[in-house]
Amino acid sequence: MDFKDYYKILGVEPTADEKAIKAAYRKLARKYHPDVSKERDAEDKFKEANEAYEVLGDAQKRAEYDEIRKYGGQHGRPFQAPPGWESRGGGGGFEGGDFSDFFSSIFGGRGGNPFGRGQQQRSAGRRGQDVELELAIFLEETLSKESKQISFQVPQTNAMGQRTGFTTKTLNVKIPAGVTDGERIRLKGQGAPGVGGGANGDLFLTIRMAPHPLFDVEGHDLIITVPLAPWEAALGAKVAVPTLTGKINLTIRPDSQSGQRLRVKGMGLANKQGERGDLYAQLKIVMPSQSDAATRELWTKLSEKAAFNPRTQWSS
């Protein structure tokens, strides 16, 4: 398989800090989000960026990736994990889902042999192995009534309990209302088959919320930054603001301040009872990046007319 250079995918240097990595991801996510982009391969690029951020945005995964990058990320050679890598435990435990084979080769399957060397199943009626899977979902999917299709590897064993290989299992899973990042969900009987008539193991899904290009999450509330031109903040405006289910028209009152939060009730994430949190629109005044002489003359007249000093408190 080919080596994936996650730094190159996000367009950052290997020395980039957490802030730069997050900013680069958000830029790509806005560009290629399937709900926004019209490019033919936007969904693939969005998933690739999400995978890169899943690794580089996590300190532990990034450290493991940096180590293995020295081993297999050069000279264009086909990638193979270093000998003994899996026996060390690999990484985050993702198997299947929307992540690549390269990702799974590094971070997938921490469980190792389900019975351990020299501990093969010898007695009849043994319960099948449980399967652990981390499932990345988008915020929009927490509100959807549609099922999400997942695929994962299930170990197969013979009558003696010895592993004979793996098979791919596909399920349609309904995301429960109010699910949160890190929550563990049990699907009974969806793990490995039992031995000698024993019960099937279970599938345990650990939910991981994929970072969103527009929204930050605080509990069941959502935060979105709303850029405003100076005159919109001064005079007031109607601004179309994205939500998880569409756009709303938000009223910006005259003399609004940068950093001010406006609450939109019931437009956040759902809780266990199906009630939704709130959306907070955080205002951010943005100056034009360039201005001509005529525009600067208008700014000069405004400054003279307004006679406003934002630093008056310093004099005290």
TrEMBL record:
InterPro entries to which the protein is assigned, alphabetical: DNA-bd_curved-DNA, DnaJ_C, DnaJ_domain, DnaJ_domain_CS, HSP40/DnaJ_pept-bd, J_dom_sf
SUPFAM superfamilies, A to Z: Chaperone J-domain, HSP40/DnaJ peptide-binding domain
Subcellular locations according to the entry: Cytoplasm, Nucleoid
Gene3D superfamilies: DnaJ domain, Single helix bin, Urease metallochaperone UreE, N-terminal domain
A biological process term (GO) from this entry: protein refolding
A Pfam short name: DnaJ_C
Keyword check for Amino-acid biosynthesis: no
GO molecular function: bent DNA binding; unfolded protein binding
Keyword Chaperone appears in the UniProt entry: yes
Cellular component annotations (GO), alphabetically ordered: cytoplasm; nucleoid
Keywords: Chaperone, Cytoplasm, DNA-binding
Residue ranges occupied by any J domain in the UniProt entry: 5-69
Known role: DNA-binding protein that preferentially recognizes a curved DNA sequence. It is probably a functional analog of DnaJ; displays overlapping activities with DnaJ, but functions under different conditions, probably acting as a molecular chaperone in an adaptive response to environmental stresses other than heat shock. Lacks autonomous chaperone activity; binds native substrates and targets them for recognition by DnaK. Its activity is inhibited by the binding of CbpM.
Protein name: Curved DNA-binding protein
Record organism: Pseudomonas guariconensis
Organism placement in taxonomy: Bacteria, Pseudomonadati, Pseudomonadota, Gammaproteobacteria, Pseudomonadales
Gene: cbpA
